[in-house]
Amino acid sequence: MPIKDIPAEARPREKLLSRGPGALSDIELLAILLRTGIQGKGVLQMSEELLQLKIDSASRNADGGSGGFGGISGLLGATADDLKRVKGLGPAKRAEIVAVLELARRAMAQKLQEREVFADPNAVKHYMQLYLANKQHEVFAVLFLDAQNRLLAMEEMFQGTLTQTSVYPREVVVRALHHCAAAVVLAHNHPSGTVQPSRADEMLTQTLKSALALVDVRVLDHIIVAPGQALSMAETGLV
């Protein structure tokens, strides 16, 4: 249904202003960002299709065509190239969505910089999901923390199939010293969709703990993320 055919008080923008953003669905919030649909497809329908469909690795590599992101959590991990492949998203709409996503990442980073990382146990999980959950290849990242467990920096350090031989402890140690970190949180994604740690994940964690302990840097956690979910190895007793 076109926006103009919806009663004024039920239109997404008016509804947000009168009742607050919590009253809107994901579709309605996205529709406010998109503003208009395309010929033959209203903005609400376009928003719904964008969220319901899922871009897989094949469609990421395809030229053109439309696709979606498997819900709001998938959209949060979308890249500018992903958005470019969605029919009806011109440069202005793509720029606005990318800007909003980046603001969300920066807001979460600022929150972690201003307070102890573990004051909110879910904050690190949400932060890493924004960065890693929807990547189509494995990425290993490290959060470097100060003595009060506040975020100093986050770096994506390794890509590809992650094993003890592809993640180099020496490089992690060098970056920890560069940032004068007192502790780190390790993180990586599982493109397969499961967050259960493998035996290789457990061995890698212990290898990095031993290497960093030599320079008096603690490993506080290892977060594994996938679309819509995250696991703390510390919470499961594996760190």
Question: Alpha-carbon distance between the termini?
Answer: 52 Å
CATH superfamily of the largest domain: Cytidine Deaminase, domain 2
Task: Give unreliable regions as ranges.
Answer: 56-67
Molecular shape:
elongated
Number of folding domains?
Answer: 2
Could you walk me through the main structural features you see in this protein, from its secondary elements to its overall organization?
This protein is an alpha+beta fold. The protein has 2 domains: 3-103, no CATH class; 118-232, Cytidine Deaminase, domain 2 (3-Layer(aba) Sandwich). The protein has 10 helices and 5 strands. The chain has a 5-stranded mixed β-sheet with strand order 2-1-3-4-5, with helices on both faces. Strand 3, helix 10 (199-213) and strand 4 (218-226) form a beta-alpha-beta unit. Helix 2 (26-34) packs across helix 3 and helix 7 (91-114) runs antiparallel to helix 8. It is elongated and about 65 Å long. The model is unreliable at 56-67 (pLDDT under 50).
Defining traits:
239 residues, alpha+beta, Cytidine Deaminase, domain 2, 2 domains, 5-stranded mixed sheet
Helices and strands in order:
Elements: H1 12-19, H2 26-34, H3 43-52, H4 57-61, H5 72-76, H6 80-84, H7 91-114, H8 123-132, E1 139-145, E2 151-159, H9 169-178, E3 183-189, H10 199-213, E4 218-226, E5 229-232
Parallel strand pairs: 3-4
Antiparallel strand pairs: 1-2, 1-3, 4-5
Helix pairs in contact: 2-3, 7-8, 9-10
Summarize the structure.
With 239 residues, this protein is of the alpha+beta class. It has two domains: 101 residues, no CATH class; 115 residues, 3-Layer(aba) Sandwich (Cytidine Deaminase, domain 2). The longest helix is centred in the middle third of the chain and has 24 residues.
